[in-house]
Amino acid sequence: MKLIKILTLNICFLVIACAEKSEEKPEEENTPNETQQAEKEVMLTSAQYDALDIKVDTLTKRMMSGFVEANGHLEVPPQSEATVTPVIGGNVSSIKVIEGDVVEKGSLLAYLSHPDIIKVQTEYINTANRLEYLRKDFARQKKLYEAGVGSGETFQKAESELQSAKGHVKGMEAQLRQLHINPESIRDGDIQQQIPILSPINGAIQKVNIKTGQFVQAQTNMFEIINTHHVHADLMVFEKDVAKVEKGQKVYFNITSQPGKEWEASILSIGKNFEQEPKALHVHAEIKDRTENLVPGMYVRGRIAVEDMRTLAFPVSAIARNADKFFVFSAEREGDAWSFKPIEISTGAQDNEWIEVRFLEEQPADNKYAFNNAYYLMAEMNKGEGGGHHH
């Protein structure tokens, strides 16, 4: 009986202990959450607050000169670039230019020679001579037909052959002109041993892709010429900013390879098709006061000036970046200390020292924020892993 009483008493103690442990468990589960919340806060004493000269104020909308960030490259329009190719195959007999040479439209670049070049000229002479014979034969057959002596069939045949020969001669003359050969000089017996390769535009030689003696097929890329007089900025505007951009707006840009100098341009045209990665439109801007050191392919960082707008904005010093996110800090006085809590934002246009912001979650209108020293507050918040308020 005594043993039974002892066992009963032990069981009672065990049940009570388990019940107490069960009641304490919710408190233990809350502790990590409280620590996590505490980690997202920076506490400063009044002395620290004064020493850092932190500016605290409510947020109001301000008038900003809107800017849209847009990066890209310097480019030239298609009509300012040329690939020079021959219309007939031949051997390069001489090259008259090197890379970097400035040329004008019609300037001599090289000569080609080949038996086929002579052959096409002799064929033209034969065809032109036959045309003269057919003209005379047609005139003779016409007289006979009108006199009632010749047959109508013979006259019609002479007329048909004459028209066919005229078309053949005109076609060959057009071909000779493409080779830069004057048909009239050939009729006088002046056969060209080589043909010139001429520049189709004004510009500078960008590439020479041939060597003396090399055989080049028709349509071979012999030279590349570029005219940088109409170099422009080709910028990419992201989808979210497209509605703000219009033709004629000013663009200010810097070139990575030429730091310290800013160029001005104005938007000429806006593309109509989105690039997918990233999703953005091409915007072409004409550069004011172009200089020769602006070379196509240079990377540019630009800002497009859009209409003035009233928007929520923070000073640059009020925004801190942590990983790939941006934050501002709400500010609240707690006795003699100050509490600062990070609030995630997205950034927009920048006007000098102010940046347009959008809150990811709606904030109370009477919230106060730190207007400077955001990076210091972020560094303090990130110190350690142990939780609790940071001082």
Automatic annotation (TrEMBL):
Keywords: Transport. GO terms for biological process: copper ion export; plasma membrane copper ion transport. PROSITE patterns: PROKAR_LIPOPROTEIN. GO terms for cellular component: cell envelope; membrane. Pfam families: Beta-barrel_RND_2 (PF25954), BSH_CzcB (PF25973). Gene3D superfamilies: 2.40.30.170, 2.40.50.100, Helix hairpin bin. It comes from the Bacteria. GO terms for molecular function: transmembrane transporter activity. Residues 81-225 form the CzcB-like barrel-sandwich hybrid domain. NCBIfam families: RND_mfp (TIGR01730). Belongs to the membrane fusion protein (MFP) (TC 8.A.1) family. This is Membrane fusion protein, cobalt-zinc-cadmium efflux system. It comes from Christiangramia echinicola.
